[in-house]
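Example 3.
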Amino acid sequence: MTTRDPRATALARLAALVADETRATCLLALLDRRAWTAGELARHAGVAASTLSEHLGRLVAGGLLTEERQGRHRYVRLADARVAQLVEDLAAQVAPDRAARPRNLRESSAGSALARGRTCYDHLAGRLGIAVTDALTDRGLLVQETGFALTDAGLAWFEAAGIGLDRRGRRPLARACLDWTERRPHLAGVAGAALCRHALEAGWCVRIGSERAVKVTAAGERAMSDLLGVAPAALR
Amino acid sequence: MTTRDPRATALARLAALVADETRATCLLALLDRRAWTAGELARHAGVAASTLSEHLGRLVAGGLLTEERQGRHRYVRLADARVAQLVEDLAAQVAPDRAARPRNLRESSAGSALARGRTCYDHLAGRLGIAVTDALTDRGLLVQETGFALTDAGLAWFEAAGIGLDRRGRRPLARACLDWTERRPHLAGVAGAALCRHALEAGWCVRIGSERAVKVTAAGERAMSDLLGVAPAALR
DNA sequence: CGGACACTTCGGCGACGGCCGAAGGGTCCG
DNA sequence: CGGACCCTTCGGCCGTCGCCGAAGTGTCCG
């Protein structure tokens, strides 16, 4: 008899948190980086409030979610970018084939705003995210061929654009996140988050609806054309 | 009632494959990239052969493992580098704190060969993997500060060393893999695999025991010192 | 203060999954 | 050909987990 690898125990325990469809539904929903109330998630997942309460208890205890109680509401959100990355990675592993397939009219029109531009936890995704990532690459600010990293010119570009990059933490400056509508990597990590935050703060994009869909404004088209050479058509 | 996100179903199904301690034990063992027989895994995990047979059935059906039948043996291995990366990522997520802590004498001496150098699926890991990755970085062949990518000089270095890089597949050329003894990223991806293969073929390293531990040879010390400026002391 | 609301706890139910040993089939070897 | 070996299938057991509704706690608001 071999002694059990403690890593196996921990690995199984972590996976078990995701291995339930209701909890997986919650984790995917929480990728929008908003804080959801328990009731919202229960309605979203289609289960009773009591059921969802237990799920949240597990997810919080397992460190995947953090909670804030405000009055009679319990708000939860993904614990950190690391957890978001984990969920994204798992989702990308699992979804690699079903994308880019045209569905029926209602779904495709409902999904088109999301496909055009959205946030993926804290960075830009969808065609918008791809367009920005490609533009950075075309201009020599980002390399994708030999890995995934900002170049020196890329660092200078962020500096010149007034987008600060916090390089102290352990989080990687640039990281590839696989887009599940476009099936291609887009910029995540510190730089992806900073760019997304700047785009929203500077009015380049605005959120539409209560979803994580975002729309590029006229000012945003100008800014991205000027700073990155992104053709406005690539954003539509 | 909301219609269930099909991604949630697939996500939960994938996670469920890892969410069992016996299966997790198998997946971690298979990270050595060897093909194990069902019986070996059963003994390793400490369960009956019949039990393990069912686990293998699930893992194969789920696409995490591939099998080859030879005579009365059933050999299984991880399906591809993508699955290996998934397991590594999950394991890294779960183990980030317990490393670098000195344990009792028997464990630390038994583990020291593994900590010194080993393979992690198809690339070098342990202190050896870190030393090589750091040396590449110090010489400007690899950037880690702004992401993780080979530089042009790095591509030339591989070329000059006669280590071919297959750039056709979708697999990234360079990718960071978090080391669970060193808690630092080391080189994985196509370049990491090519380097590891070359090191073994050229006799820079030899496998020791039946484990995934590797030892640097005298010739390997010379080669790494000449080509990368790795001080031999860093490998011990 | 009372009622509406959000969430949690509890009991109970049903399903699923992991485990084993026994039995069976395929393969190798003497 | 016979026996050893490796694996798989099957039946049965048991524990865990997801689910619900009912009841309880705490909060907000009129």
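The first helix of chain B runs from residue 6 to 18. Residues 37-39, 49-50, 52-54, 57, 71-74 of chain B lie near DNA strand D (CB under 10 Å from a C1').
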